[in-house]
Write a structure and sequence with these properties.
This protein is mainly beta. It contains 19 helices and 77 strands. Strand 25 and strand 26 (553-566) form a beta hairpin. The longest helix is centred in the middle third of the chain and has 14 residues, at 775-788.
């Protein structure tokens, strides 16, 4: 019985090996299949609503996520803004200038940058800073001055107050050049702008008896001189001052002068063209109708001078966002057109009214879809009048360029594979975005995007969510009362008026429809797919939503008010429109015991309590946008766990009558309550209003009682066991981000793992900003998510050879942008198809202190030589290596560098350290096929003789209790071992040989685009494990290699991977060190390692030899000093070399060997391996060690069994492991392909590439001389077919329908080999259509049921390709001919039959391919969605069928279900992120 020893089921690694000739080229240090990166193309879709100009820190948000609102300045929180939180600032010459640094933010006698950020930052300032470093009012080579946004002197202005150390918790003298107020007075601070052309100012009043709302929450103008003459500070700050650079200052140089400029993510991703950007914003002219493109998607480099960093005059993204502003405030106390025209009281605003208001996000998203679709012109309703003279858009000088198709084939267009992405930046509440959308339930708007039906898509989203049927909303279907009252809802399609803040502003949920359409639709006619990803960066509401914990439930309280009468035609009639009041200020007196951050037993007995003041504006938009009524709210939880809510009117001014109250949810009496009238309305003039809730009356009860509402009221609520009415769970852009995610398993359901990979409850593309200090972090996460979606896949494996309930498929991936990796586990469904994501091992790496990381000390005098990888445990040579930086300069940072490698992130640049930033601790996994080590493996060793055999059954029993483990190498310098069931890390191993490279890995100059240190392989080889008997016991031993990372290998005892210790490190060998020192240079008995060990890309095998030893069978690899091809047999226990075989060749290297047991005794008899010169060697290791030899030739002139050469007698390199089977008439058949794909330039095909070949050679004990001794088989025909949704094959339609797919098929010849006249067969890999195209075989073939299965590789430099493509070939093993039946279900009808045959070859020889020619079975297939693949792995599925898995460089995973007997089955594929 013939066996190939210890062959495991592995599915891919995406590198193999190529090019004819010698080993003179260098092993590539980057994956060869990576083409030139095609940058994603990103449209920034940005709202320009007035809310962008509210304060960033409103004292009503939980900034530090401790469950408590942060109601005043808190030094422990870092406040983001134009100032550096850790610098002190001096104010002189009308600007703030950094004076010194501070570690704790205190700046006695000076201004703290952190405190200034708290006082002065608007939301727009935070956006400008994070996007491009901030608005520069001065931008020269000698100076950069940032200027705060224009804030009109109305309710957009904000104020802060300071009372005392006791009240505020800090000493104001530590953060400002001010003393603590005296006599219980307060310092007041206001951020505003005093005139339309004035500079932004910070106004300070000291030692005032008044409260801040008496200065800021008043009739316009606010923050005036009515309380005294303030000290005014212009909010201008000098940035990037020499010697005091901020962390976002970037150096620009013209070669002689270096200039530092503050930068943001646009420079980070745009200066080097790693992304291209466009901009679409809302307009002022059509403020409630869609948006306009301000910049076509293009390179960002035209906006920044590359030598100085100064912004150019290009009217692009930066200049547009700089120009956006509040435009209609007239400094006469109102917005244009002034009184009374600016007071819209009888209906929602019309287009062109209240120009600073309006946030039609869904309509803007629709316009971006049109842009990506290549429409030639914008939507006319969105652009009409925008550029007219005298409009606000025209006056601001905002750009309105003609549209350019981003995928145009002309200059400036992008490759068809450039990923289209829409990044929406907006306030959490869209408004007026439900009319001009195709398929809207609120209009008859049609649009021009094929198949876009917003209502139908909204139905799909509703069905996929779990919303309540009774919701707070302004409008649902035909029910519209202008209030956020509870209404029945059955879909997102016909609800709008977002509750509780904007029930009359017509904002809806069509943003989700736009996200879903973009994801489902190939939006452009360009080649390939252009499905749009949508990411949302959402600015949390500036308005309060109080959450009160009671009895393990949450009651939500939201202030709410309506204008119900008085002047300007407002009536309280049910059928009329009443303005919803804007909340323009929120002042917290105290909120206690609502979370862990505000516990105080002295307040309300430790139960939740709060008191705050709300300032209401009496209309919805524009007007004077100031204070019209103030109400004090108080809530407390009683001893009986009820909630009492008290309201008191405290101030009012104006002719409009206001009724104030709240919306409450989570009680037995949820609803909208209007409880009090404003204080300047007399009881006799107060009208009844249908939403009023007089004392004792519930919502919907008797309201028309003829009795005025009071100015103070109290109501008690009981917590409900269930909620009678609810808010929609998420904001519209949450749904947009979620439903733009891919349904990867195509089951029609967005599984949680498909949209929330980190299990935080939010879509992976959704970023809610509750704290401006988190804006930078959230936007960087958004851009990292964009990069992650363009990463490549590396390798995959399965955890079983037979499908069961616990079967998984594992996929290794890497991201070449930051050289990080992932190991993903997916469940296999009962039919063998790929199910949901189980886990991602990159997310399960423990804290540095909890990791088990080991290494090797070669200087240890005795075994074991394993050590725990910590600086103190390293030998002096190892410590010296870590004490150097990447350039060899001694910096003595070895200890912290070791901790960084172990996973300590505190020493990274982003955290104030000096080492490389990492967004994942797992390094890139490129060439390392994961290896699964199970607990039920039976390798058959009970058939051995004596003690080994008798004890193997007991060893198998002990394996049942061990943890199944997965092993893989990564270029973070480690071999990783993880729990194959959970993904939890078990241990990692850092080979001694790579310790000298760890300083490179930790350098901030490593691996990034434009960095001075390029990517380097470290631990890159594919590990292999097997059972072995030594030291009177059985062990499972793993042998790992460095691959392209170096010349070395190591062995670990992994019998119990979950309890691995340093004592389980067996040995490590390289070309500079070995356990037996003489093995390095002993040239007498064997070739020494120093000269003969090359890059160890070949994999090892663990075998039993005839000398009773267990050994690692290892090839010497490539680029050794000697250049020979050498085979080593290494003692698995000690690392000593048992025997080596030198082929006496030059410019060569030996590839992965295959050990063969010819007689079924589980002992290796012969070993086959190929080399770079095309030689197929046979090593005879039967009998005594003294007789072990190269089977053919004589010493010192050994001969190969066969040399592979092309038709011109040029050697064809063999770099993949061969496969071996028995010939039915005696002897062995050895199967292998030729080609190389691991050295620099192997991916370059050239004009006349060498033709590579697949061989089947019969070994009968003598040399096979040449190709003439073999039967030639040919690739007869190739053709592309379209597979329709109805499972019909036909010639491809142009354009290809979205529900069809393409497949390339091959037919080969079927000549029978005339054994024994011929000694095998060969098939040249030459396309009958394209001729020689560099096709090669660089992965091991698979032998099953008389069929030889192999994959080929064809490089492709197309930047939109996946680095190349692969044919999956399946032919008769004995003859190399096509099979009689097709192994492939070509038409996807679930059956393998004659309908899968193709008529593509002239079988009757008449010169035509027509109906008279025979239909033939297919010999090979190629799928355009896969890219480069390896040989499939096989799992036995239901009823004995075979599930074959391959993964490609595209990231797609392909599964073919095939009968192992009669040819029936089906195919499926799915894309994995």
């Amino acid at each position: 019985m013939l066996k190939t020893l210890f062959q495991k089921l592995l599915i891919i690694s995406l590198v193999g090996l190529y090019t004819a000739g010698t080993a003179s080229a260098a092993v590539s240090q980057v994956p060869l299949f990576l083409t030139n990166s095609v940058p994603p193309i990103l449209m920034l879709t940005m709202g320009r609503d007035h809310k962008l100009y509210y304060e960033a820190y409103n004292d009503a948000s939980d900034l530090d996520s401790d469950g408590a609102l942060d109601i005043r300045y808190t030094p422990s929180i870092d406040y983001f803004g134009y100032f550096d939180s850790y610098k002190c600032y001096d104010y002189s010459s009308n600007k703030f200038t950094p004076d010194s640094t501070t570690t704790d933010k205190t700046c006695a006698g000076n201004w703290s940058g952190d405190f200034l950020n708290y006082l002065t930052t608007s939301r727009m300032d935070a956006l400008r800073k994070v996007l491009y470093g901030g608005y520069r009012s001065t931008d020269t080579t000698s100076s950069t001055i940032l200027e705060r946004a224009f804030i009109p002197q109305d309710a957009h202005s904000w104020g802060k107050e300071y009372t005392s150390i006791t009240v505020d918790g800090y000493d104001i003298a530590d953060y400002a050049p001010l003393a603590v107020p005296t006599g219980g007075n307060r310092h007041l601070f206001a951020s505003t702008t005093l005139s339309a052309a004035g500079d932004p100012v910070l106004r300070v009043l000291t030692n005032k008896t008044e409260r801040i709302w008496q200065w800021l929450s008043k009739e316009s103008p606010v923050a005036d001189n009515s309380l005294g003459t303030p000290i005014d500070y212009k909010v201008l700050v000098e940035a990037c001052v020499s010697g005091l650079l901020e962390t976002n200052c970037k150096a620009y140089s013209d070669g002689t002068t270096t200039t530092y400029k503050p930068t943001g993510i646009l420079q980070k991703y745009g200066d080097n063209d790693s992304m291209a950007f466009g901009l679409l914003t809302g307009s002022y002219t059509n403020n409630i109708q869609g948006g306009v493109v301000r910049k076509n998607i293009s390179s960002f480099t035209d906006e920044v001078d590359p030598n100085t960093g100064i912004f150019t005059s290009s009217n692009g993204i930066v200049e547009t966002i700089d120009k956006l502003a509040i435009v209609a405030y007239n400094y006469s106390g109102s917005y244009e057109p002034g009184w009374p025209g600016a007071w819209n009281t009888n209906s929602p605003i019309s287009n062109g009214e209240a120009n600073d208001w309006g946030n039609p996000i869904a309509e803007m998203m629709y316009e971006v879809l049109r842009y990506f679709a290549g429409k030639s012109t914008p939507t006319s309703d969105f652009t009409t009048g925008v550029n007219n003279s005298g409009t606000y858009d025209s006056n601001l000088g905002l750009a309105l360029p003609a549209w350019l198709d981003p995928y145009r084939p002309t200059s400036g267009g992008f490759e068809s594979c450039a990923k289209p992405i829409q990044l929406v930046i907006s306030d959490i509440n869209p408004s007026y975005d439900t009319d001009q959308i195709p398929g809207s339930s609120f209009s008859n708007y049609s649009g021009d995007l094929s198949g876009l039906d917003a209502s139908a898509l909204a139905d799909i989203i509703w069905a996929g969510e779990s919303e309540a049927s009774n919701i707070f909303i302004g409008e649902s279907g035909s029910v519209s009362d202008g209030t956020p009252s509870a209404k029945v809802a059955t879909s997102f399609k016909n609800i709008r008026g977002l509750a509780p803040e904007e029930p009359t502003k017509l904002g809806g949920y069509y943003a989700g429809s736009m996200g879903l359409y973009g994801q489902q639709t190939d939006i452009s006619t360009a080649n390939g797919d252009q499905n749009i990803d949508t990411l949302s960066v959402v600015l949390a509401s500036p308005l309060p939503r109080i959450e009160i914990p009671v009895s393990n439930k949450i009651v939500t309280l939201v202030p709410f008010a309506k204008s119900v009468g008085g002047c300007l035609g407002i009536t309280p009639d049910v059928t009329d429109f009443q303005p919803t009041n804007q909340i323009v200020d929120f002042y917290v007196e105290v909120i206690a015991n609502t979370g862990t951050g505000n516990e105080d037993l002295t307040i309300n007995g430790g139960r939740p309590y709060g008191k705050f003041n709300i300032n209401f504006e009496d209309v919805e938009q524009a007007a004077d946008h100031d204070m019209d009524a103030i109400a004090e709210y108080e809530f407390f939880v009683t001893a009986s766990n009820q909630i009492e809510v008290n309201l008191t009117g405290t101030y009012a001014s104006g002719c409009i009558i206001q009724h104030m109250g709240y919306v409450i949810s989570g009680t037995t009496e949820d609803g909208t309550y209007l409880e009090i009238r404003d204080t300047d309305t007399s009881a006799g003039n107060d009208p009844d209003y249908f939403l009023d809730t007089p004392p004792g009356i519930l919502p919907g009860g008797t309201w028309n009682d003829g009795v005025a509402l009071g100015t103070t009221t109290s109501r008690t609520f009981t917590v409900g066991s269930s909620t009678s009415a609810s808010f929609i769970k998420h904001d519209p852009l949450w749904y947009a981000a979620k439903w733009s995610m891919t349904d990867k398993d195509a089951n029609g359901i967005l599984d949680t793992s498909e949209w929330d990979s980190n299990s935080d409850g939010d879509p992976d593309g959704y970023f809610l900003v509750t704290n401006a200090g988190k804006l930078e972090e959230q936007l960087n996460k958004a851009f990292d998510e964009i990069v992650a979606r363009t990463s490549s896949a590396a390798a995959a494996a399965t955890n079983s050879t037979r499908l069961d309930t616990n079967s998984m498929v594992y996929q290794a991936r890497f991201n070449s942008d930051n050289w990080t990796g992932q190991l993903l586990a997916y469940h296999l469904n009962s039919d063998g198809s790929i199910g949901s994501l189980a886990w991602d091992a990159s997310n399960t790496i423990p804290a540095e202190s909890a990791r088990n990381i080991f290494s090797y000390n070669p200087e240890e005098s005795s075994v074991p030589r394993g050590i725990i990888f910590e600086y103190a445990n390293l030998n002096s040579d190892q410590q010296d290596l870590l004490d150097q930086d990447a350039y060899g300069t001694v910096d003595s940072f070895g200890s912290t560098r070791a901790d960084h490698i172990r996973g300590d992130t505190s020493t990274e640049l982003q955290n104030g350290g000096s080492f490389r930033n990492r967004n994942s601790l797992m390094g890139d996994i490129v060439n390392s096929d994961p290896w699964f080590l199970g607990n039920v493996d039976n390798l058959g060793y009970s058939a051995l003789d004596a003690t080994e055999a008798s004890s193997y059954a007991a060893f198998r029993s002990t394996k049942l209790s061990r943890t199944p483990a997965l092993f893989f190498s990564a270029n973070d310098g480690m071999l990783h071992s993880i729990n194959a069931t959970t993904g939890a890390e078990l241990f990692t191993y850092i080979p001694n040989e790579v310790i000298g490279s760890l300083s490179t890995l930790s350098s901030p100059d490593y691996g990034c685009d434009g960095c001075s240190i390029s990517h380097k392989y470290l631990v890159d080889g594919a590990p292999r494990a097997g059972d072995a008997y030594f030291d009177s016991d059985w062990h499972s031993v793993l042998v790992g290699t460095l691959g392209a990372g170096g010349r070395g290998l190591f062995a670990l005892d992994v019998s119990d991977p979950s309890n691995f210790t340093a004592a389980d490190v067996l040995w490590e060998i390289s070309n500079t060190q070995a356990p037996t020192a003489s093995d390095l240079d002993d040239a007498t008995n064997f070739p020494g390692l120093r000269n003969n060990l090359g890059y160890t890309l070949p994999q090892a095998s663990v075998v039993r030899l005839h000398n009773d030893k267990w050994a690692a069978v290892v090839a010497n690899g490539y680029e050794s000093n000697s250049g020979s091809a050498v085979l080593y047999l290494i003692d698995i226990e000690t690392g000593a070399i048992i025997k080596s075989f030198d082929t006496k060749t030059v410019n060569n290297g030996l590839s992965t060997p295959i050990p063969v047991d010819e007689d079924g005794d589980h002992i290796t008899d012969v070993i086959y391996a190929g080399d770079l010169l095309g030689n197929l060697w046979k090593f005879d290791v039967s009998g005594n060690v003294s007789t072990w030899t190269i089977a053919y030739g004589t010493n010192p002139s050994p001969a190969p069994l066969f040399q592979a050469v092309d038709g011109s007698a040029t050697p064809q390199p063999i770099t993949a492991k061969p496969q071996v089977g028995k010939h039915p008439d005696g002897g062995l058949m050895v199967y292998f392909g030729t080609g190389k794909y691991f050295e620099n330039n192997d991916q370059i095909v050239g004009l006349t590439p060498q033709i590579q070949t697949f061989y089947g050679i019969r070994d009968q004990g003598s040399v096979v001389s040449n190709r003439s001794d073999l039967q030639e088989q040919d690739i007869l025909a190739e053709e592309t077919f379209e597979i329709t949704v109805s499972n019909v094959m036909k010639a491809p339609a142009i354009p290809l329908p979205s529900d069809s797919s393409l497949i390339d098929v091959r037919v080969t010849s079927d000549t029978e080999v005339a054994y024994p006249t011929k000694e095998g067969w060969f098939m040249d890999l030459e396309s009958p259509v394209n001729g020689a195209e560099g096709e090669r075989v660089v992965t091991a073939p698979l032998l099953r049921a008389g069929r030889i299965i192999f994959s080929t590789l064809i490089p492709d430099p197309d930047p939109c390709g996946w680095g190349g493509s692969s044919w999956l070939m399946e032919i008769d093993a004995l003859n190399g001919s096509r099979l009689d039946t097709t192994p492939f279900d070509i038409n996807n009808d679930g059956v393998f039959d004659v309908n899968d045959f193709v008529q593509i070859y002239d079988t009757d020889g008449d010169g035509d391919i027509d109906v008279d020619d025979a239909e033939l079975p297919v010999s090979g297939i190629r799928k355009p969605d896969l890219g480069i693949i390896k040989t499939p792995g096989v799992v036995t599925c239901a009823d004995g069928a075979e599930c074959k898995y391959t993964s490609g460089s595209s990231g797609n995973l392909d599964m073919v279900l095939e009968s192992s007997g009669s040819p029936t089955g089906r195919q499926s594929w799915r894309q994995l992120r």
